[in-house]
Protein 1
Amino acid sequence: MATVKNKAMRRARKGERIRQVAAIPFRLREDGSLEVMLVTSRTTRRFIVPKGWPMKGKSGRKAATIEAQEEAGVRGKSPKQPAGIYSYWKRMADGFVRVDVTVYLLEVTEELANWQEAANRQRAWLPPADAALLIDEPELSTLLQNLTIPATAPARIISRRSTSPT
């Protein structure tokens, strides 16, 4: 990952836009209402969606799925088509860079009690409208407010938590 990030930072310093991938984990409650999961960032503790740098040899969808497992402790299935794109200003040690993020929905099938970044992050299940209020990035907030589940996603109802370790 460090190599991808370093390459992206070199491109950003030349004025090029860089890209990341993200997942919006979702589930349906027993009453049929939709919930999405947000996680806190490691540094600012703001609520965000799990996201990260593209991974060499992996599709954007696969990389977003991996980020969701590492950052939010969830596993699931993701439609092939992205749910949308948003841009934000990423804080770096020497300033800010503009990042374009391709977002994939992730239908959560398993929520882990222990995961890679559990000690560094908190996670929360929220209705999309509430999640949108907690997000600082306006484009991501709009994406959450207008979130719809694609017809191809079965959207199983999740009512219990897994305690499987990673």
Protein 2
Amino acid sequence: MSATQTAQRPAAAPSASVAPAPPEQVAHDPVALWASAQVTALNVPDAPEYGSPAWCALRASDPRRSAALITAAEQWRRHTAREAWLDHLLTHDPEQWFAHVTAGANDHARTLVGSLTRRPTHDELAARRTVRSPERPVVATPGWPPVAIPGRPGWWRHVGPSGEQLDLPHNRPKEKARCPPTCPPRLSTRRYGC
């Protein structure tokens, strides 16, 4: 534009607020086009990241150094433009700001909906916990140690001499029959020769 065309353009009123467009939706961004043309003109296939040790090792005349610098400047310009746009939305249209900021999370939530619908809800899990299986009685088994009785601390269930269940205040199993110490040893195949 020439100076005369710029002078003829009406100026916006100082109190008028012009809503900036989202930076990624601007169709013809002259600065982005210029930066792209400059990087293309430098004709470098790969440039190290600006400020990285590889970038610092390049000579000042290396075109990769300039390409990295232009790319980093353009990325920073787009970043600050996006932040300014989001700040403007937050101030003037909080609902639109919230919708834009949470759009990625909403998209991700839509991918999870299928697996979430198959999972039980909190109420369903609570209902499952209230259904209990019938209580089983505590039974002592022959050949095993006595069993502690729930709800009666210090008491154990034993198997009696004729197989009955006995509740006793100790957990010592019944003594096995042994020969008295005065019994003379016999030559026998049985374990106890009394």
Protein 3
Amino acid sequence: MTAANRPFVTAALAAVVALLAAMTAVPAQASTASTFTSAGSNPVLFVHGYTGDGSNWNTMAGRFRADGWPSSYLDQWTYDWHQSNTTTAQQLSAEVDRLLAATGATKVDIVSHSMGGLSSRSYLKNFGGTGKVDAWVSLGGPNHGTDSANTCFDPSCTEMRAGSDFLAALNAGDETPGSPRYATWWSPCDTVINPDSSVALSGATNTRTACLSHTGLLSDATVYAQIRDMINS
């Protein structure tokens, strides 16, 4: 190597070192979404669907705990699924306030399944929830109705029918109001939500999953990882 070439070689080596440093920094940044941090992670309030209860979330809540979320930050809420989704939304408002007070957090993340997406959306739109929720997730939510609700007659179920007064009011105007980050997941193999297009919301990040059943959305590891990283970003 000549003396004249040495500066160019040194500069080239410096560029390579800088590039390698940048490349190795990417995984470290990406992995932060997978880990609970006391400064950046919110409590998670799980809202089950029709005929369900808080135990529906055992698998997902267990995965959150394995990734560092304290049990006090994981609220597997149970409510009376027979009642109107508006009544559930009002009760959800009180549960959010209870969870915030118990944890000292300023906002929660809501993860809902099926009909739970309707009451939690009603809470956001009609009961002041947009100021208390950072991220909202719907798994297989009948956001625009499902024909599966045509043969059941509980107040909550009739509200899931396409064209119901409840859904017309809920979807009027902005489907994703306020500052929360909205995301939905839908499966092409979900036989409970028909049509599949019912799940997606205007203004949300809408994700198609692999071929999963309606309840399979609750336990799929890939869906969990995507939700975890979305709410924790």
